[in-house]
Queue: 2 jobs
Job 1
Amino acid sequence: MAPLIEFRNVYKIYRMGDTEVHAVDGISMTIERGEFVAIVGQSGSGKSTCMNIIGCLDVPTAGQYLLAGQDVGRLDDDDLAAIRNRMLGFIFQQYNLLPKMSVLENVEASLVYAGVPRAERDARAKKTLARVGLADKLKNKPAQLSGGQQQRVSIARALAGNPSVILADEPTGALDSRTGREVLALLQDLHREGNTIVLITHDNSIARKAERIIRLEDGRIIYDGPADAERAVVQAEGGQDG
Amino acid sequence: MSFFQSFRLALQSIFSSKVRALLTMLGIIIGVAAVIVIVGLGNGMQNFMTDSFESMGTNLITVTVVGRGTARSVSDDDMYELAQENPALLSAVSPTVSSGAQLKIGTETPSTSVTGVGEDYADIRQYEVGQGRFLRYVDVLRRQKVCVIGSYVSNEYFDGGGVGETIKIGGYTYTVIGVLKEKADSGEYGDDNVALIPYTNAVKLSNSGQISSYYFSAASEDVITQAKAAIEERLEKAFGSDTAYSVISMSELLDIMDDMLNVMITILAAIAAISLVVGGIGIMNIMLVSVSERTREIGIRKSLGARQRDIMQQFVIEAATTSGIGGVIGIGFGYLLSSLATKLIVALLQQDMAVTPTAGSIAMAFGISVAIGILFGYLPAKKAARLNPIDALRYE
């Protein structure tokens, strides 16, 4: 079986006037089903571009990105949308909930685009909301909830579509440290339940909650290995520790 | 995403900013109301005209003999003969002579027009006799000094009666032998302010001393054209030219008026429809603003798997719903204005004319407003659908 995520010498090059910026500069890596991987790096290291490519929001300039064996670079806008809908669940730093819709409707949104019938939508959304401990907030608007609760709604939304990969982009960035820890604990739980999670962060202490760390610098991988060995290796190579 | 889902989203979005939605709809509301009132007004005018023409008799054919300076002429006998020879086409004929004589009742001089007519005039003009009797052939033949008065004259000067009273016409004393039933509204300016005398008398009272016009009644509505042709043929033979007379049928006149009104209404409605287009541009404007305000929402939806056509559909349906609701409000508003206009017309003009919006114009106005929403919603929706999800998600 093909790996879930496979980068084959992926480049993302932006042209700014006369200069070329290599946001992703020849990355190759694989992520298997059931892994909990943190992609970590300073701003400008290319981790956001990496996430956009993994999340099928963007396509590589060169190289191949295979998601469950399928080359995503050849697909058009609507095919990418369909893949995001079926295979990916996003968790954003700013939660990105739809403010005019209730919590339940927010969680149902991706199921609506998937064409899931109403009764099933309701049932699945309620189930995932119960999973993140918000079964009593179905009718609330996002603005009525705390930051931690809103982030849990967005986790429920990511889970509702039964995605192959959950992509979490700085999920604790807008939260205080305690609720941040709760959200991370929830992600670890989800990983133990068999979900594949890719966490993008600049914060090393958060990255270490994952099993595996991929550290980027200037668009290249400078470390790829178990989280617990990362500190020693990076320090030995003269990298800095956050 | 299903149509129904998009529709629900559209309603949610419209109701979350009601004032803005209302302002957006304003152009459409005004446009639709204007179209409905104008078409209603035209429709009312048409009904009013048809009614008044029908009260004159749609089978009516009027012949006017213009002065021509030759010895050739037609006499009343010729015209009666014409009617008798063509019973299938012409059912009745009556000369009409405007005497120009002054009517005097006691010491008063009413504005009543004194017209000389034949014994069939009542049938042709659809007058009914309320009291006494109408003129008879013998009255005409013997030039009896008798007259029939309209309901206005009867009400004003004889307390609703009048039979047996005497009045003076051009210095001669006439006896009232009949009172006509109300035909219009018993007003001063209408068919009820009349005094009818034998045309043989009226000819003597008039300046020209000649009969200048005839009223024919066609046997039925279906033979009006043939009847008219028969009259024209006879007159042509008599005068040797077709410039000395004119023959007009009421139904023809009604058709011409109808055509003119229709052209006028169409032009006015088209002008009103311009405001629908302006309203559509207003919707486009707000939708463009709305798309940039909701860039982040669009980004979120795209990250959740919305395809271009899902986003497109959402915004097009929102625009169509906005203008559709505007259309419905405009229809209500148009109805309100129509009934107000009806009251105003009745109060100011004393005419029984109703501004009646037609079902067709309502359906059309609603259809056009929805279509305008789709048309002008298309561009903003396309802009929304094409947004790059990464930029849209990052948009503050």
Note: Chain A is about 35% helix and 25% strand.
Job 2
Amino acid sequence: MDQGIDLQQTFIQSLMDLGLPAGAAKTVWMPLPMLLMIIGATVGVLVSVWLERKISAAVQQRVGPEFIGPLGVLAPVADGLKLIFKEDTVPAKADPLLFTLGPVIVVIPVFLSYLIVPFGQNLIVTNVGMGVFVWIALSSVVPIGLLMSGYASNNKYALLGGLRAAAQSISYEIPLALAVMAIVLMSNSLSTIDIVNQQSGYGILGWNIWRQPIGFVIFWIAALAECERIPFDLPEAEEELVAGYQTEYSGMKFALFYLGSYVNLVLSALMVAVLYLGGWELPIPTALIANWLGVGETNAWLEIVGASLGITMTLLKAYFLVFTAILLRWTVPRVRIDQLLDLGWKFLLPISLVNLLVTAALKIAFPGAFGG
Amino acid sequence: MNLAEGVQIVSFGLLAAMMLGAALGVVLLSNVVYSAFLLAGAFISAAGLYLLLNADFVAMAQVLVYVGAVNVLIIFAIMLVNKREDFTPIPQAWIRKTATAVVCAGLFALLSTMVLATPWAISTDATVPSGSMVVIGKHFFTDFLLPFELASVLLLMALIGAIVLARREFLPDLEEADLQQTMLTLPERPRELTPAGSNPGSHSK
């Protein structure tokens, strides 16, 4: 596998040429990708909020935001500004410390998970060996924040919403983890980079979705349930629970919940793109394109174009999935809590166990096709 | 001492302080909900310490199992039975407190002598070992096979027990007179069984 462009090495080398010691150069480099990722995640949220408004309007044959910027693209920015200037209230009988800490605990793990999202061979904040396991472990911290804010609000609807959120995310974490495990079994690694590399070489035909169709469906259902999107948005079901654990929140604290849920949606879509849709790979293998153009695979220009195409491909795949999630939200009704738990425990869990077993058997039977 | 070592020492100090503070809070605070949330803090600090020891898989498993499952379950249980009660002073509480203090001090002394007496083999290798999971997997299926299998049998037993408790079939006509014959079943009050999808009221809107 060619290494492609290594921005980190180039940056550190140029700083060392200016006379900085190696340690200091690396320290200067380290916050840059993190900051870039946080900004990227936030911009991703703005884009998906705008998409949500526009697509929901199209589904309901409305126009949607129209006058705030061209095609209403500034509508999410206006939303954010409104939330910043809103008064930040804490209910009199609430627990002020836990009330403030709750949304923070919900948001931090979601942003931390962006550590392991790759946009190219070296376009990743850190290629830790644990890879997807980091994401699964971090997403299991979120229910604590939801329970905390539900409890601290001192409101029975909020408490019920928090309890439902925790029950839901615990139930759907197991099929999610089992679906990921089948992928990990095939690529012999938890690292997201290795998972994408294992899918490369045959273009669209090599993507995991053809080898793991059941796993793909299980993963996407479980990921939507983890994001608490309709049809699984029981923790904030308006007719039953006012707004669930968000009932008492306003201003920036509410904005954190809002931000967290959209960041989580984009993150889940990115993870589906990485695990099942070949990550940054093009539908046509890069080597083939290089052959057609008659240049070597290590050509500098081809690598720059390839890297930017890789980022575009990852985002395109992710936003296609975001689009399906939005379309689902405005099409299907909400499930009942017993149907939700039945689906998770009695349907997805057995299916994902069987899927894992079949994958292991296929891996032994056809080591060439299923990653020996 | 270079930059990386400095960062390690500072983060060790922070994590140790967080761990001690959170653990003391769990024990000393009278509000049980605070204790439960601080327990999560203690678990997270332990995961951070594992990360400093290059045990990345153990750290992530700690977060997933202890914070994401055990602690959420504890908080869940507390919130479902949340009754704010003031503790009534127990007569002669000092006996209990002294006994607890003796046991804790003894345990602490035992563990500290163990820590000091064991000749620890400290690795001087500066590089981060990769693939700790592969090593753990190999150990699971060679020299630690028996504990691994025993743990899985234990989990299976817990799983079956949970299913048996959750799926108790009950007889609506069963009254107290019949309880003698069914010594090993738990008494429960009748409820209506409404399987999902068979509720006509929810579809007729």
Note: The interface with chain B takes residues 23-24, 27, 98, 128-130, 133-134, 136-138, 140-141, 143-144, 147-148, 150-151, 159, 162-163, 166-167, 170, 173, 190, 336, 338-339, 342 of chain A (CB under 8 Å).
